[in-house]
Amino acid sequence: MIVGRRSLLRVFAPGNGARPAGWGFGYHLSDQLCDSLVFSTGFPYYAMMAPSRTRFCLAVFALVAVQAAAQTTLPDVVVKAPPWETEHGGYKISSNFQVDTHMSAVVYPAEPFEKDDILSVSLSHMHDDEYFVLQECSSQDCTQAHILRVWNAYGALGVTVQNENRVWIPHEGKFFMWMQRFPMRGFSTGPFTGFKAFSPPMVLEPIGTSEQFHVTDVVASQEAGPVKVVSSDHDGASFVIRFAGGTSVLVKRMRALN
């Protein structure tokens, strides 16, 4: 608050007897204080040459006071994490995934993966002829794609890492997940145990024995396309995907807090 030589004075109406008309604020400002006040408001220097220097300063002060009083006081804002996020063990864990509205068989992260993110996958009630795929676009137009990992009812295919249900994301990119079914007649040979790393998007090229290919129509299964998602939901920090046929997959993204 600016302090002059007098902070409060009695205001008198003109005329004989000088009867009091009310209370008001008035200031007799020092030259230095007056200069600082006017220059801080951006008024030109020549304004200081006004005949009534103190009166001019008082007008400036009144203008500044009115503007300050007119400012709106903003309410306190409480920032909360989205309901699909939590923090645990040094990670921010999120279930922020979506099912593609045009292709109801494709799941992708609503917030793009970043380098060193971890995708955690948990499968239940999976059939022996089903394969859950994590794939990324490997070309700008996504006509070619790279498969990072494939799971079947017995675990991840061709993986020797300690935790096969966690995938470290190597770089930023377009990642998506889907389910492929390869029905086998009789299923005496067991499921495929390998796959080609590069293929068109949403195409899984299995690797197996001649007996497996003999009892499986791979081309027909590929042409039938991925298994449809019948429902999805956020279960805390896990995104629950339910496929036609009964298989459920829980996915979540883990991102280091530091």
Structural overview:
The strands form five sheets. Strands 3, 4, 7, 11, 16, 17 and 18 form a seven-stranded antiparallel sheet that branches. The chain has helices at 31-40, 53-70, 210-214, 218-224; strands spanning 9-12, 20-24, 85-88, 91-94, 97-99, 107-109, 118-124, 130-137, 145-152, 155-156, 166-168, 175-181, 194-195, 198-199, 206-207, 229-235, 238-243, 248-256. A hairpin with a 7-residue loop joins β5 (97-99) and β6 (107-109). α1 packs across α2. With 258 residues, the protein is an alpha+beta fold.
Structure summarized in a few sentences:
With 258 residues, the chain is an alpha+beta fold. 16% of the residues lie in helices and 33% in strands.
Please describe the structure with a list of short key phrases separated by commas or semicolons.
alpha+beta; 7-stranded antiparallel β-sheet
Order of helices and strands, N to C? EEHHEEEEEEEEEEEEEHHEEE
Q: Report how far apart the termini are.
A: 44 Å
Task: Report the principal-axis shape.
Answer: globular
Strands, count: 18
Gyration radius from CA atoms, angstroms? 36 Å
Poorly predicted runs: 1-29, 43-51
